[in-house]
Amino acid sequence: MSVPIPYYLALSALLFTMGVVGVLVRRNALVIFMSIELMLNSVNLTFVAFARQFGTVEGQVTVFFVMVIAAVEVVVGLSIIIAIFRTRDTMDIDDVDLLRG
Amino acid sequence: MSALIEIIIFSAAAAGALAGGVGVVASAQPVRSALSLLLVLGSLAVMYLLLAAPFVATLQVIIYAGAIVVLFLFVIMLLHARSGEERPSKLRGQRVAAFVLSAAFYAAILAVLRTVRSAPVSTIGSEFGSAQFVGGALFTTYVLPFELASMVLIVGIIAAVVIGRPFVR
After folding, report:
1. Which of B35, B83, B73, B159 is nearest to A77 (CA)?
2. Residue A69 backbone phi and psi in degrees, to 5
3. Using the beta-carbon criterion (under 8 Å), do A55 and B122 form an inter-chain contact?
4. Confidence of residue B169 (pLDDT cuts 50, 70, 90)
5. How far is CA B137 from the centre of its chain?
6. Which residue range(s) make up the domain with A84?
7. CATH code of A32's domain
8. pLDDT higher at B1 or B121
9. Does some domain include residue A50?
10. Which of A16, B121, B127, B138 is exposed most, by the fewest CB atoms within 10 A?
């Protein structure tokens, strides 16, 4: 381990911050969704780094479950995006404001 | 593996991940965002190998790069996404506020990282992170969450089918 664990954590934090910026700034629903994937992946990196630091398997098992949930989330989320696109013909989240009152 | 090679690989993977992250957020076209996401996922797979997690790295390539990014590309092609110029946000000053708050967020995490004294890195055996190592834990200690994950997958498939049905008034 010639690269210290905190370097991995700092990189992970930076990737997570990029994902946050993407969710806050972008208007395209697909790009926001990809930014969420970016955040999930940065957290996965943190889990793997800590698993390496403490020499335990739990971090890697958690990453496995995160990947499963991410797969399900992508399937459901993309089908929702397609349903919105079919009914309202838009992918801009500012156009989807039925609950605004 | 010699120390210098490991540092070089880490630097290259980190540069790839950061460039990909910028690409995901800043690309005008969703296709480029998806391909940038692929770059991030590949770079992180390399990092998992550096962190002695070959099984997780394999899963990363198969599930994320193989399935999820392809699904994204599929949807982009399907909707042949209206790309390009996004209209300005309806909220005034949202962009500036987003950047400032995100920078503050990152600064807070870095401050924590700098103050906390990290524990020593433990020594691990050669089998650490292999499919047998992780799978052993999955099928003994964590067998119940593992089965629940399969149920979540089934529910997700059913949900996608139900949402994807033709719209009936």
Report:
1. B159
2. -65, -35
3. yes
4. low
5. 23
6. 5-88
7. 1.10.287.3510
8. B121
9. yes
10. B127
- Give the ranges where chain B is alpha helix by DSSP (H): 3-26, 30-50, 54-59, 69-78, 94-115, 131-139, 143-164
Q: pLDDT tens-digit profile of A9-47?
A: 999 999 999 999 999 998 889 999 999 999 999 999 999
**Alpha helix positions (H), B60-142:** 69-78, 94-115, 131-139
Asked, for residue A98, whether it belongs to a domain, the answer is no
Interface test with A, best of B51, B69, B85 (most A CBs within 10 A): B51
> Counting beta carbons within 10 angstroms of the beta carbon of residue B162, is it exposed (0 to 12), middle (13 to 18) or buried (19 or more)?
exposed
- Closest A-chain CA to B60: A67
Paired tokens of B77? 């092609």
Interface of A with B in 32-91 (CB under 8 A): 33-35, 37-38, 41, 44-45, 48-49, 51-55, 57-58, 60-61, 63-65, 67-76, 78-83, 85-87, 90-91
Rounded Cα gap, residues B168 and A70, in angstroms: 29
ipTM of the complex: 0.92
The structural domain count of chain A equals 1
The pLDDT tens digits of the residues spanning A52-97 come to 999 899 999 999 999 999 999 999 999 999 888 888 888 888 888 8
| Contacts of residue B68, Cβ cutoff 8 Å, sequence gap at least 6 | A37, A70, A71, A74
Cα–Cα distance measured from residue B109 to residue B86, given in angstroms and rounded to the nearest whole number: 31
What pLDDT, in 10s, does the model give residues B115-135? 888 778 888 888 888 899 999
The reply to whether residue A65 touches residue B121, judged by beta carbons under 8 angstroms, is no
CA neighbor of B43 nearest in space, from B80, B75, B11, B2? B11
pLDDT above 70 covers a percentage of chain B that reads 92
